[in-house]
Amino acid sequence: MSVLVFIESADGAIKKSSLEAISFAAAMGQGDVTAIYLGQLESAELQKAGNFGATKVLHVNDERLNKGIIQAYASVLAQALEQSGAKTLVLAKSALGDPVAARVAIKTGASFVSNVTALPDTTSGFKVTRSIYTGKAFATEEMKGDIKILAVKKNAVDLKETGGSAQVEAFSPQLSDSDFGVTITKTEKQEGEVLLPEADIVVSGGRGMKGPENWGMLEELAGELGAATGCSKPVSDIGWRPHHEHVGQTGVKVSPTLYIAVGISGAIQHLAGVNSSKVIVVINKDPEAPFFKAADYGIVGDAFEVVPKLTEAIRAAK
Amino acid sequence: MKILVCITHVPDTTSKISFSDNNTKLNSAGVQFIIGPYDDYALARAIELKEQSGGSVTVLNVGEADTEPTIRKALAIGADEAIRINSFPKDSFFVAQQIAAVAKEGGYDLILMGRESIDFNGGMVHGMVGELLGMPSVSPVMKLDIEGNTARLAREIEGGKEYLELNLPFVAGCQEPIAEWKIPNMRGIMTARTKNWTYGSRWRPRPRPSCSATTCHRPRGGENDR
User: Fold this and answer.
1) CA A60 to CA A72: how far, in whole Å?
2) ipTM surpasses 0.95
3) Per the annotation, how and in what number is the cofactor bound (chain A) (predicted)?
4) What's the CA gap between A40 and A3, in Å, rounded?
5) I need a labelling partner for B95 at 20 to 30 A (CA). Which of A10, A240, B5, B13 fits?
6) Thinking of the domain A2-180, which architecture would CATH place it in?
C-alpha cells in the first residue's frame, strides 16, 4: 500500500502546506509516501520532500504544466493514482488543489473530503474530521470506497523532519489537447512576498486603519515578523487593499501560529476566517470590540501609537 | 446565451451554529437562510451577462421544500426560471450528479455557481460537474467576460491573479468581485410569483462509495466566537 501526495511550489520551493501534506501522509501510517510534482522544478528541491517522509517523488517535467491547468492536472493525478496503485491521495487545501481533486474524484470514483483538520481514525473504518460552516463547527465522517482523497487544512499536523532524501523519478502521463482547453494568458503575482494562506504569522488591518496610506506601518511590522498582511472585508470592498488579502468567511481562511488584528472590530464573519489560528492578538482602541472575546492577548489602544512601538520592540529584541 | 446558476440554501453568515438530534443535524431554530454568498455573486454576474447580450438565466437548487423562499429570492433578483430538484443534498457528489443531469437536458452555454457553499465548504461541486459533463471547470473566478463564444476570466491564485481564456460551454465557481450583489426590487418580487417553476424528482445516481456524516461538534469551548 502507498499514499500519493500532490505537492505545489511557490517561488521555486515546495510550499510549506505541501510539506505538511507529506508529513500528514507519513503520519497516517498507510504505507510508503510518494509525492508528485507537475511542471518544471529543480530535482534538488524535489528531493527535500524526503525530509518530511516521502520516499519517492514522481516528477512530470512538462513545461505546459508550469501553470495550474485544472483539467490537465486532474488527468495526471488520476493516471498517477492508477499506475502507482496508491489508494489514497493527500493534498494541501489550496485554490488549485481542491478544484483539481474534485475532477480526480470523478475520474477515479474516489470519495473526497476537504478541510481535513486531523489525522484519520482508522481503528474501525476510516473516519476523518473536517471543519464545516467555515470553521464554526466540525464534522466527523466515515469515508467509504476503495480510493480516498483528503485535502488537508494548514496546521492539521506538525511538520516532522526525518532527515531523509527522496528519489526523484520521471513520470510521463498521457495528455490530450482536450486537457488544455483553457489558456492562461497572464499571471499577476507578488514575487517574494509571504503568501497569506501559507503564512505562519499574519498581520491584518481593518477600517480602524483609516486609509490605505496607513498600511505602511502594518507592512513594516509584518516585515519584521516575516508575516503576511491581511485585511477585513470592508477594507478590500472599498479597495484599500487587494481582494486576495481579505481574511474571513467569504475570503481567505487562515490558520497561522500567530494572528495580529489591528483596528478590526471582529464581526463573526471575520472570526470565522481566523478561528483556527493558534494565538490571536487584538489591537483596538475600543475596549468593547467583540474581537477581544476571541483574543488570547488584547491591547486596548490607538493602533497608530501601538503598532510602531511594537515594531520597535521586535526590532530591539532581535 | 443560456446560463444555469446553481444556488445553495445556507445559514446567514452571522448565524451561530449548533446541532440537534444527537449532533447529526443542524439546529435551524432561529437561523435565517440565504442564497450562498458566493452563489449570489454568480447569480448577479449571470444577470449582468444576460442584460448585455440577451439569453436566459435559470436558477437551480437541489433541496427540499424549505429552500423555496431562497429560490424565490433568486427569481426576484432577476433569474427567469427556477428548477428545484426535490431531494436533500446529501453530499457533493450527489449534488453534482443532479446538476449534471439538469445541465445535459437543458443544453446550457454556461454553468455558474459559487466557489464553495458556506455550510460544508466543499468547494468541489463545480469541478465534479465539469468532469461529469466533460467540460472545463475554473474556480475561483473573480472576473468573467464573454464575447461570442470566447470567455475571458480572472482566477484568484495564492498571492495574485491569473487571466485565462476558454470557449463555451464551461463550469465556473465564482467569488467576489465578479459582480455586486443585487437586491430584489418590488417589481422583481411581484414578477417572481408568476415565473416558471420546474420540480424535478431526483435523478437516480448510480451507486457509489461516499461519505456518511456521523457527528458534528463545535470548536473548543463550545463557543462560535472562537
Assistant:
1) 12
2) no
3) Binds 1 FAD per dimer.
4) 23
5) B13
6) 3-Layer(aba) Sandwich (3.40)
